Amino acid sequence: MFPRPVPATAPPRPYTVSELLAEVSSVLRTTWRDVSVVGEIGRFDERGGHGYFVLKDRTSTLPAIIFASDLKRVPFRMEPGLEVVVRGSLDLYAPTGKFQIKAFAVEPVGRGALQLAFEQLKARLEAEGLFEPARKRPIPKLPRRIAVVTSPAGAVLRDILNVLSRRFEGLAVTVYPVRVQGELAAAEIAGAVAHLNRRAAFDVLILARGGGSPEDLAPFNDERVARALAASGIPTISGVGHETDVTIADLVADLRAPTPSAAAELVVERKDEIVRRLSSGRSQLLRAMRGRLALERSRLVASGRSDALTGFPRRVAQWRETVSQGRDTLLMELKRRPAEYAARVSAARRLLEDFARLAELPRRRDRVGNLRSMLGEKMERRLERRRARLQEAARKLGILSPLAVLARGYAVAYRAGSKAPITAASQVALGERIRVRLHEGELGAVVREGGRLQGAGPLFAGREEES
């Protein structure tokens, strides 16, 4: 009545993490060993010569790595935002379990790698100002020593030498042989330019190569060659490829020639043309000199016939008379001046004689000031002494003054109209009117009685007894 139990399936063999990642990595390497992926570079870092970047589209991202040996073969700069086709193998990095693609080739989408590299380098050098016309130097009109950097095995060198010998024979031409294509060409060209500048014995330097594919012209689009030409102290002419070919070397050089033969023609003019111009200039100069001499000769003749020249003796006589009059006036002045100068000297001598007295004035003025100050001090001291003596005399006089006696209660009697005091009772008759001077005010009195004092005693003793 009960169903039979279904036997459970056996669980799979458990893997360790390392075993699982190793097996998946092996499958990816064998199955996805050569795959191409298109995407946009989202981030790019270069560490230890290796390139680490991320490919992305609208919804996903894929980590990627390109090793240094493969990165060196990429001719352009890998930059964020650049759409590329990456060719490589899928891989799983076991230590972190990160899925990535190992790239061994990178190509830009829509453009060739060399064209992209050319555009990137051009933009960078242009931003630095290496293409500015202001930094380009003029090519000498008649260089004596010419350096040519090119391949010795080719028609380019023969064409340049033939053109130079045909246009101006006898020029000193130094050929520096280099490779003009291949991986080693750029380094050799840059080294040649630097070496010729160290010698500093050349008036102009020609860099030349015949036409070819973009791959053949790649050394002349190398940054090392561009910077060597920019740093050159020798004026440079670039004659690379055909007229339609434009390289970075053409843009940096002081002068661009459409072809190597044209570079040889631009570096020096034809000798017969120079001779013809010199001959023509000599003829023009001689004609100009003859015309100028004739003109000046006619002016000289006209000047000899002019009134200004014929009247010269008369003017000389007038000048002689003027000089004679001036001489007489000068002699008179010279005779008059000594007396005038003698008077001046005499006046100056008198001033000098008075100078001692005048010089003595400040000292005497100071002495008078000192004496005045001393006199004032002495007068002040004498006035103080006299003032003190006067005050002392006034004090003594005040003591002896009758007014002081009156202030003590005494009185002075005198007849009216007289200033002499009455000193004895016998001097006054009975019934006589007298004046009595008190300390404050006067009294009029009539004498009713009089007599002599009997003996000495208190001043008012008799009156008190009588009263």
Your description of this structure?
The chain folds into five domains: 17-110, Beta Barrel (OB fold (Dihydrolipoamide Acetyltransferase, E2P)); 134-269, Rossmann fold (3-Layer(aba) Sandwich); 273-300; 322-400; 402-441, no CATH class. Helices cover 48% and strands 18% of the residues. It contains 13 helices and 13 strands. The chain has a five-stranded mixed barrel. A five-stranded parallel sheet has the order 7-6-8-9-10, sandwiched between helices. A three-stranded antiparallel sheet has the order 11-12-13, with no helix packed on it. The termini are far apart.
Weakly predicted, low-confidence segments: 463-467
Average pLDDT rating: 81
- What characteristic shape results from the CA principal axes? elongated
**Numbering strands along the chain, what is their spatial order in the largest sheet?**
1-2-3-5-4
Topology order in helix (H) and strand (E) letters: HEEEHEEHEHEHEHEHEHHHHHEEEH
**CATH architecture descriptor name of the largest domain:** 3-Layer(aba) Sandwich
Biggest sheet overview: 5 strands, mixed, barrel
The helix tally amounts to: 13
Terminal CA distance:
189 Å
Q: Could you name the CATH topology of the largest domain?
A: Rossmann fold
Write out the CATH superfamily name of the largest domain: Hypothetical protein af1403, domain 2
Rg on CA atoms, Å:
69 Å
Helix content: 40-55%
**SSE-based structural type:** alpha/beta
CATH first level of the largest domain: which class?
Answer: Alpha Beta
- Beta content comes to 15-25%
